[in-house]
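Hey, I'm writing a tutorial for new members on how sequence and structure tokens pair up, and I'd like a real worked example in the thread rather than a made-up one. If someone can provide the structure for the chain below, I'll link this post from the tutorial.
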Amino acid sequence: MGISAAYFTNTFVLSWTTNELHMNRQTMLYVLLALSVVQFLWQPLAALISERVGEARFMVCSLLANVVVAVPMFLLINTARPVLVFCGIALAMISGSGYYAVLAGFLARAFPSRVRYTGISLSYQLCSTLIGGTTPLVAQALLTSGGGSIWPVVAFYVALLLVTTACVAVLARFMERRTPSAPPVAATV
């Protein structure tokens, strides 16, 4: 979802707010700039928090928080009022960038060292191409086919989040099983 969220916000939301909601493009670019500052400040804090609660738990909680704020985010964006648009996207950005802050380290531990670079690169590139890159196209198609209704787009956004959450949970469980337990310590005389 990390890649999809970036494409979703920087491509689809920019297009939606400027074309359908008739927001001033420059104003929307300022909103996105301010949001990038929020993300820049939040991601390191999110990484620190994840160290305390555990990566997988933090990622799942971040993604589920993003599900909870999905409807308010879209409703606030739909107002076309810059401050409310900022608040709506900021809600999703805080939870989404929290997940993204932890993703690289999580994926690094998901692959054995002999295939780590290839595994991470392949998963990132395939996700970028197949899911992330098509996210704005699918969202726009849903918005258009829904006659401008945001609800099909909300459903799509939530579906991406839930699939990502399930994948993180399954991968975390797989990683737990794969990690060998420490051998018993022999008593020394």
